[in-house]
Amino acid sequence: MPLVKRGNSKFWYVQFQLNGRTFVKSTRTTERKEAEKVEAQVKAEAYAEGVLGKKKSTTVTQALLRFIVSKEGTANHPNLIRRKKAVLSTISGNASISSLTNGDLDRHKTMRTLQGRAPQTIKHELNLIMGAIRFAKRNGFDIPDLTPPPVKIPGGKLRYLSTDEEKRLLRELDPNRVSNGLAPIDERDPKKLRAMQDNYDLIVILLDTGARYSEIASLTWDQIDFENRLIRLWRSKVENESILFMTTRVAEVIADRAAVRTCKFLFSNSEGGARGYSVIAIRKAFDRAGLHDCTGHTLRHTHASRLIQNGMSVYEVKAVLGHADIRTTMRYAHLEEAKVTSRARDVIERMNSDHQNLGVNQR
């Protein structure tokens, strides 16, 4: 019989063969008549796909959710969840994904631009849509052939912190700072103090590792090697593990946090899960420090710029940052070139000095 009971499940299952392929699917109901309706639908879909060559259909929302679930456990997963909401603000989630057109993608880009969203943000949202479409295709769903609109990412001047700016930022994040808007230290709410310490520690780690915010905000204790003072990061963009060695101040920050840890994450939310994207207090600290043109990503630029300025090559920095494409790292190339021309000047200076000394000796 096509409808069967399996194992200890209370639900009816549809089970049949078509063209040598066995289909088994739960009807998610204990009612026989309802199960028969599901059976008819499953058979119709299987026949359309297997005999007529018609592919399965799915909605935009379902396609996005399947893709996001497939990325669970990666550093980018929380970002995808956030971007899904933005995508569904301009594209109907109930629409069939096969009905999407290039015009829908163009409209999303236009609307998000009018809302003042940054080009990089819009590009990430379009990448989510295309990722969901590719994932749906791999799973046998009917999908459209789309080409996302180009999004120009402005080059602009690379912003990174000077040593003085870093000190100003850390002063504004210091949990023990005195401010008119804060209660005296001994009267502060423990949760408030904990949140302030979290923000300070997070920024220190970002500055000294160059890691992405999402990578550190979701870091677990089993990724920390205290004996060798290193952090193991799985980077989904390049699909490999990066080893980041701790500076002394990062090691001290992590050791202090280890002494009071209560869950598996270095930075957790109120429920004990990963911290997630929580940057309001950090943005305010940037503003108080007078760094109005800076964001969390400025810290990553700061780390990379310091490495380049102190002799590391663009290719070495690519490995440190976990970039999938060297073209992304090339934004720092001008700093490397400046270092090279500085060394070239020093070579000529030495040669000029040698020639002058030779002339003095000859006289």
List the helices and strands and how they pair.
Elements: E1 3-5, E2 12-18, E3 21-26, H1 32-50, H2 60-70, H3 77-87, H4 102-114, H5 119-138, H6 163-173, H7 190-209, H8 213-217, E4 224-225, E5 230-235, E6 240-245, H9 248-258, H10 280-288, H11 296-309, H12 314-321, H13 326-329, H14 333-362
Antiparallel strand pairs: 1-2, 2-3, 4-5, 5-6
Helix pairs in contact: 2-3, 2-5, 3-5, 4-5, 6-10, 7-9, 7-11, 11-12
Please, could you describe this protein's structure?
This protein is mainly alpha-helical and 363 residues long. The chain folds into three domains: 3-50, no CATH class; 60-138; 163-339, Intergrase catalytic core (hpI Integrase, Chain A), CATH 1.10.443.10. The protein contains 14 helices and six strands. Strands 1-2-3 form a three-stranded antiparallel beta sheet, covered by helices on one side. It has a three-stranded antiparallel beta sheet with strand order 4-5-6, with no helix packed on it. A hairpin with a 4-residue loop joins strand 4 and strand 5 (230-235). Helix 3 (77-87) crosses helix 5 (119-138), helix 6 packs across helix 10 and helix 11 (296-309) packs antiparallel against helix 12. The radius of gyration is 28 Å and the shape is globular. The termini are far apart. The mean pLDDT is 87.
Characteristic key phrases:
363 residues; mainly alpha; hpI Integrase, Chain A; 3 domains; 3-stranded antiparallel sheet; 51% helix
Distance between the termini: 111 Å
Helix proportion range: 40-55%
**How many structural units, i.e. domains?**
3
- Report strand order across the widest sheet: 1-2-3
Number of strands: 6
Shape: globular
CATH topology assignment of the largest domain:
hpI Integrase, Chain A
Task: List segments where confidence is low: pLDDT < 50 over at least 5 consecutive residues.
Answer: none
Give the second-level CATH assignment, the architecture of the largest domain. Orthogonal Bundle
Mean pLDDT, to the nearest integer, reads 87
Counting DSSP H or I runs of 4 or more residues, the number of helices is 14
CATH superfamily of the largest domain: Intergrase catalytic core
CATH class of the largest domain: Mainly Alpha
